[in-house]
Amino acid sequence: MNHIPLIIKREYLAKVRKKSFIIMTILSPFILAAIPLLIGYLTSLDEDTIKSIYVLDESEFLSDSFQSNDQTIYTKLTDIDLDTAKAISNQEQADGLLYVPKSSLESIAEHIKFYSKESPSLSLISSLESKIENRLSELKLQNKGIDLSLIEDSKTYVSINQESFDGVESSKTGTFMKLLFGVFSGLLIFMFIMIYGGMVMRSVIEEKTSRVIEVIISSVKPVQLMMGKIIGTSLVAVTQVVIWAVLGFIFFIILTSIFGIDLADAQSSQQSLVTEAMSNPSIGDEIKIIFNEFTNLPIVNLLVAFLLYFIGGYLLYTSLFAAIGAAVDNETDSQQFMLPIMIPLFLAIYVGGPTVTADPNGTVCTVLSYIPFTSPVVMLMRIPFGVPIWQQLLSLVILIVTFIFTVWIGAKIYRIGILMYGKKPTYKDLYKWLKY
Amino acid sequence: MSIEVKNITKFYDEQTALNAVNFTINKGEIVGFLGPNGAGKTTLIRIINQITMPDTGSVFLDGESLRPHHIQYIGYLPEERGLYKSMKVGEQALYLAQLKGMSYSEAKKRLHYWFDKFEIGHWWDKKIDELSKGMAQKVQFIVTVLHQPKLLIFDEPFSGFDPINANLIKDEILQLRDEGSTIIFSTHRMESVEELCDDIALIHESKKILEGKLDDIKRDYKTNTFEVGLMTKRSADLKQTINTKFKVSNANFKSLNNDLKLNISLGANQTPNDLLAFLTAQAQVLHFKELIPNASDIFIQTIKNN
């Protein structure tokens, strides 16, 4: 008898009906949206506080360099000595005093000092330094009789146009977009494995602690129960994504109606943006490039690969998560077995990410995109840059072979583990269970 | 459904859980599985349920070697039992019944029959969390017997029940036997073995060391000892006199005016009537009862002898 559909249905309904699922599904997009807003708001709070800097310039080289602006007010002190200046700055609760002693242009750089009550922020010091450096360099150039306007005129900006041997144009923006898509899909797979793998594990533990397990497996084979659980939980993930997509769409409609922008308007405004861009060639080029790059992305490849690697990676990891859940009695005990599973996943993100950024075809990330425990994440990061089909197929074959293997191992451990209570198992125990 | 267990052996690692176990259970019998903790009872039950595979040997149900489809004929109430806590009673019972191969509508019909019988219809939409342990056990019992299994395996079925509900369950078990189900009953509570079992099988240190009809076993284990109460003025003398012909020891039982209470064992060629005739000649006999070993005595004695 095949009970998998029945088990899938139960697992699915049990999770989808949970209050926590409903709340998290509805709340998390808002939380995700709220976090950047909150960060932005908190950062802007800091920027709002205006800094007050007193400047005592005995050399008079730097007199014009410090112009007050929105964030900083510079107050120039003249005709007083350093001690008085310090006293005044302290009394007026200034954020600091910049002291430039009288000296020659050649040696002055070493004698400039900043006095303050509390240590100044790194950004404040850097901004002061760059102002002083610019001014002193200018003065030195002028002393050597060089016309500053010549230097200004000689400045050149380079943006290399890229094109593959097959004639596909590209640019830095394109590289950036590829990276964005790659990292995004890699992270998405990582997140789904973590969240839903954990969910499968907890659901196995729940069956153990509620002792319903022995009743169930007197009716179904443990492997069927495990697969039903894994598939049922994956359908929960799909449901969540669909709800988010629908919510996003509704949100979009509400937003546009509130702000009175209808789609036609948006299109025409985009049109005007483009025409405006045409008159300003550099911005127009950028927009054209972004559109161009988007169509240049291997979208179909990316989608198909996402689906396949998602299924493969998900099965690979959740079968191990299920085995862990079966081996332990409670979630606390699961930690020691979680670690070896987490390491390759984190490796995929923290090593895969930077190496793909540095060189999408480099040795390290190529190897990582073959290893089945990292390939779902790393290969997806690489695909936007164009990965030969044979490489993808090879990596997928390795992944499939491995997940068949881990499902087999997972099922073996699961079969024995679900009936073991009490003692916290060791790795040696798990190895023994494989042979029962 | 008859069961034949042939030469079952099961190893866990270096440890032997079952060692060449054989026995037969006939249709419509209640067999008590007895044995100390860790003797191998649960392993044997799991093998019959196809949860665990034996290393050697086989199990036959009605002469047919055990196969996956047999699970629908077996109802199993494990000792370690429970239900999904956050699932509703009715929904859960339906799910478990369907796993046993029943159709949805059939399961629903039969569930309503049992819920009405136990007068728990109003629990249908409650979560298991909201029920007491005894209430949950009732639901669990219904789920075990719902698919009208021909073989029922109960592991400590009465734990968690108050005496009233334990009686209710006991009557149900007897009725199921009368309807033709074969029942395996594993427990440490010897008084329920006495009440329910026709046969027993005693497992100790992975071996079956005793099997048979409970009455036959009792006959084998009895020592022809009688509990006697006599009314007499000369207790000490009388005891002496009896001791010349029979083996005598002091007994302790409750009664109103017995002056002398004795356990008297018969010798090889002595009959109960010989004893009775001897006693009536000496004193008024107020109490005369054969001492028959109960399941608990048999259990303890057999384990000690092994």
Description:
The complex is a heterodimer of chains A (436) and B (306). Chain A has 436 residues and is mostly helical. Chain A has two domains: 50-152, Periplasmic binding protein-like II (D-Maltodextrin-Binding Protein, domain 2); 172-435, no CATH class. Chain A has helices at 4-16, 19-48, 82-91, 122-143, 148-154, 172-209, 213-217, 222-258, 263-279, 281-296, 299-327, 335-358, 363-368, 375-382, 389-417, 427-435; strands at 51-57, 72-77, 96-100, 113-115, 162-163, 169-170. Chain B has 306 residues and is an alpha/beta fold. Chain B is built from ten helices and 14 strands. Chain B has a six-stranded mixed β-sheet, sandwiched between helices. In chain B, strands 2-1-4-5 form a four-stranded antiparallel β-sheet, with helices on one face. In chain B, a hairpin with a 2-residue loop joins strand 1 (3-12) and strand 2 (15-25). In chain B, helix 2 packs parallel to helix 4. The radius of gyration of chain B is 25 Å and the shape is elongated. The two termini of chain B are 32 Å apart. The mean pLDDT of chain B is 89.
